[in-house]
Design brief:
By secondary structure, this protein is α/β, with parallel strands linked by helices. The chain has helices spanning about 35-45, 50-65, 75-100, 105-120, 125-135, 140-145, 150-160, 160-175, 195-205, 205-210, 225, 235-240, 245-265, 315, 325, 340-350, and strands at about 5-10, 15-20, 190, 220, 275-280, 280-290, 295-300, 305-310, 355-360. Strand 7 and strand 8 (about 305-310) form a beta hairpin.
């Protein structure tokens, strides 16, 4: 089995849903006893995805714990933001087209990715703007994101842009299953406040919390829909009437545009990371990633790390009783021929950082 583990979505014959994770959440125990500088080197190597975000979160947590000297975080934040952009584009350039059975050339994305990894300066922002315009949105990203909800819906239903066509296919599947995946109200966790950081970091010291985290007794959703919750689209009744998985994918496009504008200095300054000292010798750091808020907790004694813990977005979004479990609970109303595609959309909209598998027991 891969060291990354996997998410298993088990659909029981009595319509119950089980979400199981084999992610090795105790992996960070191997980091105890190392010096802070060694932790910085080891943490990104433990994870296949979001290595730059993991490195930045480690810096912020260890600095907050007093185990690492303060440093300029600008380059680390820029690298993490570029990484989040590439992860976000991957969903629309690779994953959604494959799900929809659409043949799109991967060459433009491959060229963009190569260029960004070679040059993360502000000049690369123009490449991103050009890519979003020509390969996804069909119009200037800032103009697209500043439109009101009704204009966005017109784009969704009438534009020839690749992203609009993919999202129309998404909606057709979501609406074609007889009303399954009814809307559920779940608290949203965006960039955390100091109060949230303090409470969550304290809870992270417990192993069971890392496997099934909650905020004040409630399951939460993190990611683009949380980051973009204050956008005017999500105060529009017609937009809010869209299936929630579709809303999340629209929010992912908004987040892409916001990150690109942040990287180019085009009027948007996003919070990308933060840290909070908790007491003498421990602290917590967070990073805004494509999948949601990534949290690291560190405790240090003398020049060694005595405890280290990581809480990834997947644990929030794929909580056994969380947003995915509730969204797919009416799975037995979905025609058997559509279940795989329907479930794939629900999972893709929340985007786990590991592979997932589906088990169905319908008799």
């Amino acid at each position: 089995m891969s060291i990354a583990g996997k998410i298993s979505v088990v659909l029981q014959h009595n319509a119950e849903v089980e979400i199981r994770s084999s992610r090795p959440l105790q992996l960070t125990a191997s980091l105890r006893g190392f010096a802070a500088a060694e932790i910085i080197q080891r943490v990104p190597a433990l994870y296949a995805l979001c290595g730059r975000a993991q490195a930045l979160a480690a810096h912020r947590a260890l600095q907050a714990a007093g185990a690492l000297a303060p440093s300029d975080r600008q380059s680390g934040e820029r690298a993490a933001a570029v990484e989040a952009v590439l992860e976000g584009i991957w969903r629309f350039a690779i994953d959604l087209p494959q799900w929809a059975g659409v043949s799109l050339s991967m060459a433009p994305f491959a060229r963009l990715r190569h260029a960004l990894l070679q040059d993360e300066s502000e000049a690369s922002g123009e490449l991103l703007n050009q890519y979003l315009t020509t390969q996804l949105l069909g119009e200037a990203p800032a103009q697209w994101a500043s439109a009101d909800g009704e204009a966005m819906l017109h784009w969704l239903y009438h534009s020839d842009a690749p992203a609009a066509g993919l999202l129309r296919e998404v909606e057709a599947v979501l609406l074609g299953v007889g009303g399954a995946a009814a809307a559920v109200t779940t608290p949203l966790l965006a960039c955390p406040s100091d109060e949230q950081l303090c409470e969550i970091a304290h809870a992270m010291k417990t192993d069971s919390y890392l496997a099934a985290p909650q905020w004040r007794g409630a399951c939460v959703e993190t990611g683009a829909r949380a980051y973009q919750q204050d956008h005017s689209w999500f105060a529009n009744d017609s937009v809010m009437a869209l299936p929630q998985a579709l809303q999340r994918l629209l929010a992912r496009l908004l987040e892409l545009v916001s990150l690109v504008r942040h990287l180019t200095g085009n009027g948007v300054a996003l919070p990308v990371s933060g840290g909070l000292p908790l007491s003498d010798g421990d602290g917590v750091g967070w990073v805004r990633t494509a999948r949601g808020v990534l949290l690291h907790y560190a405790a240090a004694e003398r020049d060694r790390v005595s405890d280290y813990r990581i809480l990834a977005p997947t644990e929030w979004n794929f909580h056994p009783k969380g947003v995915l479990a509730r969204a797919v609970s009416p799975w037995n109303t979905v025609p058997p021929s559509m279940r795989q595609r329907w479930l794939a959309l629900q999972v893709m909209s929340l985007d786990p950082c590991v592979a997932y598998e589906l088990e169905v027991y319908d008799a």
